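Appendix B. One record, verbatim.
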Amino acid sequence: MRGYRADTAFDGERVLPGGVLVLVDGGAIADVRPGTAPAPDGCEVAYTPGTTLLPGLIDAHVHLCADGGPNALDRVSGKTAADLAADIATSLRAHLAAGVTAVRDLGDHHWAVVDRGTDLDGPTVVASGPPITSVRGHCWTMGGEVDGTDDLRRAVRERSERGARVVKVMASGGAYTAGTDVLDCQFTVEELRLVVDEAHRHALPVTAHAHGLAAVERCVAAGVDGIEHCSCLTPDGIRTPPELVAAIAAAGTYVCPTLGRDLDRLGGVLPRQVQAVMARTGMTHEARIAHYAALHRGGVTLISGADTGLNPGKPHGVLPLAVADLVAGGVPVAAALASATGVAAKACGLAGRTGRLRAGLDADLLIVDGDATRDITALRRVRTVVSRGRPV
């Protein structure tokens, strides 16, 4: 048995006054005690004054096959199986180094992530398989094109049979696929509802990529379980009708804003695809973070995911910046931390396994320098990462 003690703690849901002592036995949390509690006889305890202990972070939107280089998604289709396996392993190591102990992969390339299985030495992976998209629709090169209702049913069944744990569907076009438009819808409400019904019949949740306001409205009408981006874009900028916010909140639909960007890696220049969308719609980063804070105030449940791997500004391991963006927009620190721990675990189907400091769950822990419950930038000052009981 080994112990980890910190002066400040967040248990995945709330701040624990007085810090915490977490006892780990094998790969699981054995006990969670107050910070001043004595450790069992013979138990070695790791402790550094001035640190915060919290559950390992969960990035709810990653692309493990993409290496974070320029035009990463375009280059994936030309890679061999060995290249993809190497990129996936490298991506997971980068997440782990940043304190991310679980990821939800929503951009698999021809089943490379799903078929790989779970890496017992790395972050827990929840994978969707190739996103379901229209013919030549957003991310069609990943292998998820469908045409008609029969194809949609078949696609959902295939994901269930191959071991995917979530179904992703592209409800709108995307900035990174030539020939598609972020403002255009790729499926009707009836088609999206068919995906939801078929997925639920196989006990799988559905999360939908949706940028345009019309696509978001169709997702809500179809009853999806989650919405990625949920940008609510129109030709005149972001527009979010109050009744839509109320409907998302009432349905308990998870929204993943996919914030977080490392401008230093971009040299201060955004990818041309992103610049084009901003120019067409008047969207700004400041407007986006304000938009998601407004959704939070309206009762919408937010989870954190950084859309990692897409370009140099979205490297794997950038999730702490996505959490910080929520706080910059006005989301309280505790809610932002929960969006990347306890709440994200629920959204990703991992609540019985990780995301909380609770006896019996996986010993996925993150210790950072400083008080992360007051200063969200402390998430970037990683001191210790524990993945399923194994110190990294």
